[in-house]
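Collaboration report, partner site 2.

Our partner group contributed sequences for two proteins of shared interest, and the home lab folded both. The records are reproduced in the order in which they were received, starting with the first partner submission.
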Amino acid sequence: MAIELIVAFILLGAVVGFLAGLLGIGGGLVMVPVLTALFVWQGMPVDNVVHLALGTSMASIVVTSVSSMRAHNRKGGVIWDVVRMIAPGIVVGAFLATFVASMLSSVFLASFFACFLVYASSQMFLNKKPKPSRTLPGRGGLFAAGGVIGSISALVSIGGGTLTVPYLSWHNIDVKKAIGTSAAIGLPISVAGTIGYIVNGLSVDLEIPYVVGFIYLPGVVLISVMSFMMAPVGANLAHKLPVPVLKKVFAVLLLGLALKMISSVL
């Protein structure tokens, strides 16, 4: 593996961890477009670069999810009853979505991801928050909601916070507990998505060293380690820097990443 690629993974992991701690965002929004560009740069098959980016990103989120879940649980911010009821739908939705992703072209996946980035960017820039107006549904309703959240999260390789926090807030869950519960939900999403991308990638002969399924192992290790190390740094600075302003700047950056991802696969 080229030294330039190793450095790129280390820098990406550092940025992802820092932003996760500072802004509370999932790393997939940054990782997928950057990994896509890196894989194209390395001459990997264009037909599968987005699949590799999604799988590698999803596997990298597992470590971050565990760390985030433990931190929120220590502060009593996780509603475990909700996690237990929504997790089965999350797992089914995330796992099955990887089968759908494996059948889609890199161009379609890149376009879908770019559209999601535009949505996430607009929500972040405008700081739009849903008006709480109802209570959580029962087990069946939460299973269905989990299926939708898990499916979309696996298709765009995120921990689900972009979808879960607004959903829980919409149902009158305190925002701090919504964030904590979302962090716990991120673990089954990332684990189910990782397994799905491994299973679906095994049938594709990519002939790339260190690749298992649609997951590039060196990228997962380097990104995870650096992300884990840098997340506390971002969290500490969150109390000292103008986070609302930084969110708007990051929202503009997301739009740039959306354009870069589309251009990488075209």
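Second partner submission, folded after the first:
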Amino acid sequence: MSDVASHLENDRFLRALLKQPVDTTPVWIMRQAGRYLPEYKATRKQAGSFMDLCRNADLASEVTLQPLERFDLDAAILFSDILTVPDAMGLGLYFSEGEGPVFERPVRNMAAIKALGVPDPEGELQYVMNAVRTIRSDLNGRVPLIGFTGSPWTLATYMVEGRSTKDFGKVKGLMYEDPAAMHLLLDKLADSVTLYLNAQIAAGAQTVMIFDTWGGTLTPQTYRDFSLNYMQKIVDGLVRENDGRKVPVILFTKGGAQWLETMADTGCDGLGLDWTINIAEARDRVGDRVALQGNMDPCVLYAEPEAIRANVKRIIEDFGLPTGHVFNLGHGIHQYINPDNVKVLVDAVHEFGSALRA
């Protein structure tokens, strides 16, 4: 990114992830660019479809920056989807109204898995890198840009099931019936994701996050063998410094609070937390090895402003340390949230985060 200044006007998000001093608690929100914003819906309509929006670098940048125009957020996150990698493997991704993502050609046996290639980040996935480059340029050093991917296990669930699922019967069935096939799939995905994230970093992402959305559906043994081991492989393969800065890595397993210690052992810089654990307990368990990100229940944003402020205050006070905390929701923001309530949240984080340091 030699053509884009590496100077950041606001770097408290990166500093908190690296446990360096900050003036207040930084905050960003999972899915902060999305359906709860009327301006997003207008741009999405202009694009024609969700994937058309992802593939148009200028429109992807526009929606990435939209929440920053409304709220005093401390980071931007690339507008994309976790399923870009399996889509680039040729599985025929489309989005069905009211049903979510669907793959025309799911993979359910060793032969289909062996036939999968590893996508070229500057080939089949170049549109994502173009979006990263455009967003970095448009941000002009305002706040850091977060790149991301789905974890191998989470990507595999969609690739095997062919769509969203509630029982994970097909993907877990393959895992138990033919573990060698599942390991081959996860290994290919880990290789693909490592290349993909490193390409995002080279294009300008200043932090990367791995979303293990479905890791919490596994047993302790299968979580370690089929999810964490492959996230470990990715962490080991990532470029951790670029443009004269460290590039922090965040792991997030939804429903994974029981495994925080082993997640911290990967060498990541930060752990995302859902709302099912108290952040003080999480901090006590991982010590100073990693920063923590989270972890307000998204449904708090349906409440009145004073209830939102009270919940923000409690989480910041429960964490209780002057750095090492990035405030976020415990999962993505809901589409029916009033944007005014998001402003209440963001402003409260900075207010109470600053008071903690007074």
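Feedback sent to the partner group on the second submission included the following. Residues 1-5 have pLDDT under 50 and may be disordered. The chain has one domain: 12-356.
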